[in-house]
Every structure is written in structure tokens, then in C-alpha cells.
Amino acid sequence: MGEYTGRIEIARPPAEVFAFLADVHNMPHYLPTVTHVGPLGHHGDHDDVAVEGEAGGHAYRNDGWMKAEPEARRMSWGSHVLPDYHGMLEVTNAPSGCTVELRLSLTPKPEVAERLQREHGTVDHGMRLAVERTLGSIKACCEQGGMDPGGRDAPRSADDLPDSRPFGSSATLNPDI
Predict the structure, then answer these.
(1) Is the separation of the CB atoms in 129 and 121 below 8 Å?
(2) How far apart, in whole angstroms, are the C-alpha atoms of residue 36 and residue 50?
(3) Is residue 120 domain-resident?
């Protein structure tokens, strides 16, 4: 299993950024392969979610879980189908706003590992680039019109959010990895 981490500073208040990221309905705006995320219910300390999208020309659906801890500004998630896949995101204070740190644990499928090796030299390098693209996408959504200008902890409507797809494929919810 590979462990991949990254961090990025965002010029927005930490509570505002966390509220945006923890709302499952916003995920398609910063995760390029995701087209729809919907809640499936609350179970114990987490929410079950259904993630739908397209990756590598193939549609997918993956049921998983997500746990948001607003007081710690931390979010964790995983898949019910892929037991070795899970991640965590944490939003902390920074002088210019906040820092978002992303930690991802997964083992890419053999065909994906082969493609990453071919395209990026190593699987680890390809995965690090995917994490960086995901963080860049989050930054773009938060700083370029994806947050409420009034400072409230709520995103604007989906029509007002920038499309993250120019940042490439996402490692964080892509079931093909």
C-alpha cells in the first residue's frame, strides 16, 4: 500500500474552507473524475456516501464512507469496496488563511500502476502528481469564486463554482487507482 501526502496554502479562512470541503455535494467541483456524490445514510460516527463518475473513459459507482470532524477541521473517508483505500484531509490555520493537508493510502490497480509507471517514470511520482493536482483544484475552487463572498461557511451555487477538470485526474476518489 502506498502512502501519499501533500499540502497547500489557501487564502481563505479555515472554517470556510473546511465547510466547503466537508459538504459532499461540492466534491464534483474539486475532484475531476467525480460527477455526483450523494449521502446514503448515517452509521455510527460516519456517513455512507455513493460516488459516481468517469475515469479513463469508464463510468463508475463506489459506495464508501466519510467522517467530518468540524471542531478539528478534519475529514476522513474510505471505500466499502476497496479495503486498502482511505484518506484524510485536515485544514489548519496559516498566516495567509489556511493550509490543507491531504493524506491518501491506497494500492493502485495493476493496470493503473503500469500506466503511472509508463507516463511518470514511477508509480510514486504519478501518485504525488495526482495529489498535487487535487490540492491545486481545491485551491482554485476556494480562491477563484468557489466560496461565499460574504464570509459565511457555505459554498455558492454549483453554477458559480470553477470547473476543476483542467487540473487532471484525481487520486482521492478515483476507483481506477
Answers:
(1) no
(2) 8
(3) yes
Q: Yes or no: say if 10 and 100 are a contact pair by the CB < 8 Å rule.
A: yes
Q: Is residue 37 in some structural domain?
A: yes
Query: How high is the pLDDT of residue 19?
Result: 92
Higher pLDDT, 10 or 173: 10
Pairwise CA distance, residues 157 & 175, whole Å: 27
Place of cell 466534491: 27
Residue ranges making up the domain that contains 94: 2-167
In 11-120, at which residue ranges do the beta strands (DSSP E only) sit? Answer: 34-43, 46-55, 58-69, 74-79, 86-94, 97-106
Going by C-alpha positions, the residue among 36, 69, 29 that lies closest to residue 50 is 36
Using DSSP, state whether 61 is helix, strand or coil: strand
